[in-house]
Amino acid sequence: MFENFVLEMVETEGGPIRLRHGGSGPPLLLIHGHPRSHMTWGHVADLLSADFRIVCPDLPGFGRSYIPRDDPESRFSSKRAKASALVEVMERLGHHSFFVAGHDRGSLVAFRMAMDHPDLVRKLITVDGLPVIEHLERADWKFARDWYHWFFFAQPEKPERAILADPMAWYSALRPDEMGREAYDELVSLIHDPAVVHGMVEDYRAGIRIDHRHDREDREAGRKVRCPMLCLWSLDDDLEQIYGDPVAIWKPWADNVGGSGIKSGHHVAEENPAALAAAFKAFL
């Protein structure tokens, strides 16, 4: 994976961000979800590197990037703060406008980036995600049954203690045959790191504490994603089953949005990278 890519740490105001970048063409920022690092994009990055300059960072709080400092409202782990940090990264790499795609928690950061930095984001792709406020306002018993971790992770201290008591049991779905051995071995190391576990959990606390307020403020002000947007979701995951048509939910948030499902489980960049890369390339 990541053939001919450069691995480096880029300093930002918040701290260092680890990333890989390579390829040629217009810049495309790929943002991973929970509990992954940038390594989840390896096969997709290789498939797209002939057409795009790919930038794959570890989100702050994840991987080997900086852990945001604590705050009663989790402001430094908010999607707004993380979007700002990644914009700073792109500027330091010389990319003053770019495409952005995010998966899972990364889709929330990509969405916030398009909302807060409309002059920089040329096109937006979200994969397996909706605005935080839409998740919360639509939560029902199916959400509580299948996505209970959103609310468990919002609690103080207990989530970290539960995960770190047996990380491999908590993340029992990890599969080296899908992820690749290097990505798998690194992720096993990461989920045993108390600082990283705390950083990942804080991402969820920010959703419950502050991210939904940012969404509400935008909705009340009538602000929308101005650039063209593509919404994708994994057909063998449960986003569509819980919420209905994701494109219909996104339409009030964007001036120009379309989308479709991809045959895959939740971690589509690992399970069906060819279909995901093809969808990205067709849209971009």
UniProtKB/TrEMBL annotation:
Family matches, as InterPro entries: AB_hydrolase_1, AB_hydrolase_fold, AB_hydrolase_sf, Epox_hydrolase-like
Molecular function terms from GO: monoacylglycerol lipase activity
AB hydrolase-1 domain sequence ranges: 26-158
PANTHER family membership: HYDROLASE, PUTATIVE (AFU_ORTHOLOGUE AFUA_2G14860)-RELATED, MONOACYLGLYCEROL LIPASE
SUPFAM superfamilies: alpha/beta-Hydrolases
GO cellular component, one term: membrane
GO biological process, any: acylglycerol catabolic process
Annotated protein name in UniProt: Haloacetate dehalogenase
Source taxonomy: Bacteria, Pseudomonadati, Pseudomonadota, Alphaproteobacteria, Hyphomicrobiales
Database matches in Pfam families: Abhydrolase_1
Gene3D superfamilies xrefs: alpha/beta hydrolase
Domain of life (superkingdom): Bacteria
